[in-house]
Description:
Bound molecules: flavin-adenine dinucleotide
Oligomer: single chain
Strand content: 15-25%
Radius of gyration: 21 Å
Order of helices and strands: EEHEEHEHEHEEHEEEHEEHHEEEHEEEH
Amino acid sequence: MGNLTGLPKPSSFERSLSSLKIAIIGAGIIGLAHAYLAAKAGLKVSVFERNPAANGASVRNFGMIWPIGQAAGQMYELALRSREIWLQMLHEASLPYLPTGSLHVAYREDEAAVGREFVQRGKPLGYACEWLDAAKTLEKTSAIRCEGLIGAVWSPTELTVDPRHVIARLPQFLSERYGVTFHFNTAVSEVTTGHLQADVFVVASGDDFQTLFPEIFKDAGLTRCKLQMLRTVEQPQNWALGPALAFGLTFRHYPTFAICDSLAALKARVKDETPEFDKWGIHVMASENSTRQITLGDSHEYGLEVSIFDRAHVNELILEYARQFLRVPDMQIAETWHGVYAKHPDRPFLRLTPQEGVRIVTVTSGIGMTLSFGLAEQTFREMGVL
Ligand SMILES: Cc1cc2nc3c(=O)[nH]c(=O)nc-3n(C[C@H](O)[C@H](O)[C@H](O)COP(=O)(O)OP(=O)(O)OC[C@H]3O[C@@H](n4cnc5c(N)ncnc54)[C@H](O)[C@@H]3O)c2cc1C
């Protein structure tokens, strides 16, 4: 157990950046994004991770950098800015990514109605999206069935990274390039002022609400969200998914599409026809990783207590739905798992100040990969470090 102490004296901030020391708790994407920006700004950075390697939501997700999932305005702008920094980091660290863009694919008239309405309303709000008819959609991807396809919303802004690869490699890059010190197998049980080990702290502990500042987390009104995920076997060498895919149910999921009047009819139809999708919070997306495996998901179950056991029938529902529309050479499932993220009823993220010089940064919806670098930049601007 590590016990970190720090001295966030007001005078700390007057010292030169190169002598300012920052301790980051958590080596998931939020911790690593803060480490990257702090190190680039010239701070002396240490990262503390309780596990031998990060094993939370950041290695369990689709790897989708997904601006299209953000509501118009500040959140979409934040996601685009985050994407910019992601690209900068990926190039600098020579880490692979796919500039996939995304398709929200419609096979039902009510889905197409939402897609068309979104493009019409979304463009003036800044979304770089387009409605494609079936033929144009099939020019973008060969990974979906053509029977019954009406069209799709195309967005060029999405990227796909391999989350397991990025989260494993980024610490090595940060220590080699910027001298960031990583302390794995080190659980931090306390962050207190008083000593000079660090001047500034960022707590990026994901859905761990119990270890550090439990009272602050309790008062913040958080719960958890558990998601079940699946991954296929490797696809053949010459095959690619193309754009990351979202299917009709996804229009219900992201706040992006709340601007569409036509969404109510789609929601009503799903509720009536397939209530189990609402019950388990299922919508289906597909992304590709560096070994051409297709990651599929997901479901959403809310509550502070997360069962360690997965529901086979929820995986079956996801797979059955995916099989209706996806055309992947080998749909055999190689892996299943679940991930958990922190959830707030109406705030997409929290940045809390439990003490001077300490920030807790928790993404409280399923968009932490997307927002990570943008949020880190905001944190340091707010702290006067950038
Ligand atoms: C299944 C799933 C799919 C998702 N898909 C996407 C997606 O495609 N795109 C997207 O934008 N978002 C996605 N998300 C959301 C995204 O993954 C999360 O928002 C993000 O990973 C949260 O990152 P984090 O660093 O805060 O948390 P985590 O990745 O959970 O990392 C927190 C780390 O802190 C460590 N830690 C905690 N407490 C301590 C302590 N006291 N001392 C030391 N170490 C500590 C933990 O061990 C852990 O490694 C998905 C989430 C899930 C679960």
